[in-house]
Every structure is written in C-alpha cells, then in structure tokens.
Amino acid sequence: MGAARRCLSNPSLLALAAALGLAWLPGVTPARGQAPQLVSTTPPDQATDVPTRAPLVFTFDRDMNTTIPVVSSLPGLFVGNIEFEPPIGILVEGTWSGNQRVLTCVPLDSWPPNTTITWRLNPPGTLLALTSAAGIPLVTVSGSFTTGGSGGGGAEPILLATIPANGAAGVAVTTSVQFLFDQPMQTNTAVADAFRWLGTGLEPARFTYTWSGDGRTLTADYAGDLPPLTPITWLLNWSGTTRPLTSTAGVPLPADTYSGVFTTGTAGGGGEDCQPDGIPASWGAYNLVKSAAHQQTSAAAPLPVAEEPFHFTVFVSSPRNGPQITAASITPPGGAPQNLTAAPFGGFLAFNQSFTQPAALDAAFPAGTYLLRFTQSGQPERQINLPLPASAPPVPQIANHNAAQAVNPAQDFTLRWNAFTGATAQDGLSLVVTETNLTGGTVVFQAPDFCVPRELPPTATSVVIPAGTLKSNRTYQATLTFFKQGYSSTNAVPEMAGAAGVVRSTDFTLRTVGGGTPAQPAQFTGYRLLPDGRLELTLAGTPAQPYTLQRATSLATRDWSPAATVTPDVTGRAVFVEPAGGLPVPRFYRAVTP
Questions:
Q1: What's the alpha-carbon Rg for the chain, to the nearest Å?
Q2: Residue 248 · residue 224 · CB < 8 Å
Q3: Which of 97, 2, 22, 13 lies closest to 430, judged by CA?
Q4: What is the pLDDT of residues 86-128, one digit of tens each?
Q5: How many Cα atoms sit within 13 Å of 273 on the Cβ side?
Q6: What is the 3 state secondary structure string of 226-289?
Q7: 3-state SS, residue 473
Q8: Strand locations in 474-560 (E)
Q9: Nearest 10 degrees: Cα torsion 417, 430, 395, 463
Q10: Of 295, 291, 294, 296, the residue nearest 310 (C-alpha)
Q11: Helix, coil or strand: residue 574
C-alpha cells in the first residue's frame, strides 16, 4: 500500500483533474458563444402511455455548465430551473452525462398515472438558470407527456438505476449488485440466462438473484468475494438469451440496451478506501487553476479549442459530512476580491472567467499569490495563500496519433507523447480515456490510478493500455493533461484537499479496429477432478480473446447457462475450475466467443 501511495505524491492533483472534467469532456470541443438549444427529449413531446417512473432525458446541442444543480420549482416558494404543470410536487434528481450535453432527470416519486404533464426548463423567474459552459442561459423551453396506468401499462420496462453506478471504481468485493426498474417485473421465472457477466476471474454461475416484494428491484449476490481490482461488465437481456427479463404486463426489457461496468477495489474491501485519485470520496476540495484547452485531430500540433479556450477557475466544495461551505472569495495579486457564486442549497461555490486569447487571461489573472477566503458553518474564516506559477507546461501532443486511430484492442497499446519539459516531482501528468454515449460517459482507463495501482510520473512520455481494456470498433475520447503545481495540501483544512497551478490539456480520440486475428474456436485439451471433487477444464484458444463457458444438463437442450468467462494467456491456454458444491448432474460444457 505504501508503494501505491508513492505514485500520488500530490493526491490533490487528481481532485483538480476531476473538477476540470466537469468543464471539458475528453475529445469534445466546447461550443461557446451561442445560446444552447434543446435538440431532443425522451419521452418525446406529447408522448403517451409513459411509465410512471420514466426519467426525462434532455439532449442539448452544445456543452452545458454541469456544476449548476437541477432544482424543481416549489409552487409559491421557489422557482427552480425545471417545473411541472399541474404542480404535482415531484422532485427530480438531475445527472449530467460525461459529454456535458445530456441531462437525465429521474423522479424521486412516481408521476401521477393517466395524467398529462407539462415540463419547462428555465421557467420565467428562475433563480438558477441552466446555461451553456460559456455561461449563456438556455431560453425557456417546454414540452409534455401523458402517463399510463400506475403499473406502467404495456410500455417497455426501463432500467432506472444500478448500484454500484455505471463507471464506479473501488467497489467493495463483497458488494451485491442491484438493478432498479420503473415498473413491476415478472419474478416467478429464472433470470440467470438474461444476464451476461464478463470479468477476469468472475464466475457468473456463482450469482444468485432475488426480487424485491414489489418486483421493481433485482439483487444479484455473488457467492464469495468478487475478483479484486477487476473491471466487471454486465449486459441485460443479451441477444442470445432464451429467458428475457419481462414486465408483469408481458413486455420484455429491450435487448442489448442496458449495460454497464464497475471496477472492484482491493480484496480488503475496496469501497471509498480505494479512489482512483487517492482522496476519500467524502472529502471536500478547494482549487485554483489557470488553464488552456487544446484539441489534436491529426499528427500535427494541437490547436486551442474553437471558442474561449483559456480559463481561470476557482471553486470550493464542502466535505460530505460537513461543515458546509457558506461563503468564499478570491483576491488576485494587487486586485480586488471576487466573490464565488454559491449553489442555492450550499456546499459548492465557484468563480470562472473565459477568454479567447492567452494574453487577456494573463492580464486579468497574472502569476503571483492569490488569497482564498472561505467560511464553514460554525468555524472561523479560512484564509489560504495559493501561489500561481509564472511558468506554464508545454501543450501535450500525442506522438503516435495515427497509430492511436487504429488500435488493436486484443494487444497492449503504447500511447506516446511529448515530454513535460521543466516538470518537477511536485507537478503532475494524467491521462483519462472515456467511452461516451447518450446515457453518459464511462472512464475505461486512467493513469495514474491509485486502485490498480498504476503510476504515471510527470517525467513519463508513454503509457501502456493493456490488451482487453478497449473494445473492438469503438471511438473513445481521451484527455492528456500537464499540471504545473503552485500549491498542494491535504492537511491545511480537515477533510479537504487543495491545489493551485497552471494546466495545459489536449483532447483527442482513440479508435479501435476489429481486434486483429479473428478468434479461433476453443478446444478442450484436458480435464481432471480435483481432490475436493470439483472439475478442472483446460482449453486452448486465441490469446487474449475472452471465451464464455456455458453449462447445461443435456446436449440436446437449447437452455445453456453462462458459467464463466476465461481468457487464454499468451500461449493460448486457459483453465477453468468449477465452483464448489450444488451443481446438477450430469453437466456438459461448451466454449463460445462473444
């Protein structure tokens, strides 16, 4: 554990990188300077028979300010940035996708059945307008939908949420996985065949499944511990299933639609003790950064993003368990203090200015020492000096950009870049690779990463993305960041990490091809009974190509259940050992490629 911590001599650096991820999704050029437009909604306008637990999904034409919380209007008391007619008193939980353009609002209670509901974004009089990343408000926009009966009618069931959430890292190996649906589901049929689980060392046959009394929550419990430090993916109602998950109305959950991934922590428990940045998730933060965002689309040098690529940003956030931040200001060297803007419910305050030219940024916010002042409930005011370095890092540039557009995911890929000249041990370098879709973004690889552990010192000029990390024929968004540190602390304020510095980042894409040589059919080359009575199978196949082992009690059946996923090593050999006890006899096995 000590060695793992040495790779993060500046743990507050990655807290800052995470904060920057709110402003720039890797590989996406911010669209600034124009009012944002709503391009689509789900359910669509005037939709009927909408399930009473269906989320509202809004897609915009440009990057949005995802630090603004989504707040429902409270009639007669408060005008939020989303409101409903009739005034049904339902609150929603808003979540932004990784690409900053998709807002998903999940109702905290059911919509009233058989009711036409009108929604408005940024209604007149709102105190907290939704804006683009450049701060330009969305013009008031509205739509409507009509709900079906309280049971969801004959509409397709919807997966509302999962625990752990999609993309979660450091998940305890003892965790049970929960799936939450918008309507009651059939609970009297076997569900194992509806799942497709993948993960090194994971044995899907060890999962048992339990429905809640209302048929809306399905819990998957794993016998023993999940494999530690392992990405585990799941897919519901995969196209090969013969027993799909189905609502009580007889409507199947859409096939090959709902999938996700989470990464387990250490065998000692993972959880919040294992965060990729090394900082507990319950901590707060205070950060000051002067940054320039670039984009690389070819082997040529990166260019600043199209509009307002230069930023000065300060924010403070409260520790999860308090005390809450109530007010904050930042004073530039020789300048007047600027108040940070607070969210209406407290706990997060920010100040940001954007520029089209670096000279304008330097003139407004020069190098020197900035004074951050903030108060927390029941405590004296904090005053912290944050030095901002005069020197800036070079702009990151991918050296093998062309090769990064044709990655074979079945082989290790080495990504290379220019040196961070002038870097010291206190500075930082980070790489984040994200898979993005309409439902959000998932981090599939990052370095440094405390949970693996994976080191990436500021002197590094390359990193290896292991075989099997990426999927075939996909486009991933990535960001390489150089950070010149002026300040870092994890003990100046209890349970808060602080950082200040100058950032240069470059967004680019990673594209994969079909994975190289097609997978060869697997062949069983040996078997034996272990002393404890379990069966051990040995098979040969394509190196680094996952194979799914399926189990049945008859060769004539069509009902083959997933038993495990095995991946041959570099010699093409893989070994599978049955879980202990409780398996039916006779048993037959076969190996199939995905």
A1: 26
A2: no
A3: 13
A4: 876 677 888 888 888 889 888 776 677 778 899 999 998 887 8
A5: 10
A6: CCCCCEEEEEECCCCCCCCCEECCCCECCCCCCEEEEEECCCCCCHHHCCCCCCCCCCEEEEEE
A7: coil
A8: 475-493, 496-511, 523-529, 535-540, 547-552
A9: 0
A10: 291
A11: strand
Report which residue type is found at 377.
S
Task: Name residue 510's beta-bridge partners.
Answer: 476
Residues 453-463 pLDDT 10s: 788 999 999 99
- What's the rounded Cα separation, in Å, for the pair 333 and 335? 5
| φ/ψ (deg, to 5) at 514 | -70, 5
233: tokens are 């993916």
Residue with tokens 């894409």: 509
The half-sphere exposure of 381 on its side-chain side, counting CA atoms within 13 A, is 8
H-type alpha helices, 86-236: none
**Which residues have CB under 8 Å from 19's CB, separation 6+?**
285, 287, 289, 313, 315
Q: How many C-beta atoms lie closer than 10 Å to residue 416's C-beta?
A: 15
pLDDT in tens, 266-283: 544 334 445 666 777 778
- Where helices occur in 53-189 by DSSP H, the ranges are none
Tell me, what amino acid is at 332? P
Instruction: Order the strands of the 231-236 sheet from edge to edge.
Output: 195-198, 231-236, 259-263
Structure token digits, residue 367? 């190098």
Q: Are 368 and 290 in contact (CB under 8 A)?
A: no
Query: Kind and range of the H or E element at 361?
Result: helix 358-364
For 13, the enclosing helix (H) or strand (E) is: helix 12-20
C-alpha 333, offset from chain centre: 37
Task: Return d(Cα 410, Cα 78) in angstroms, integer.
Answer: 54
Q: Check residue 67 and give left, alpha or beta (phi > 0: left; psi -120 to 50: alpha).
A: alpha
Residue 586 in tokens: 């006779």
In whole angstroms, how far apart are CA 445 and each of 230, 434, 451?
12, 7, 11
Asked whether the beta carbons of 236 and 258 are under 8 A apart, the reply is: yes
Inter-residue contact 137 to 122 (CB < 8 Å): yes
Closest listed residue to residue 490, CA positions, set 380, 392, 384, 378 = 384
Say what the pLDDT of residue 328 is: 92
Residue type, 378: G
**Matching residue, tokens 């062949």:** 523
* Dihedral pair phi/psi, residue 492, rounded to 5°: -70, -35
Q: Are 440 and 166 in contact (CB under 8 A)?
A: yes
pLDDT value for 329? 95
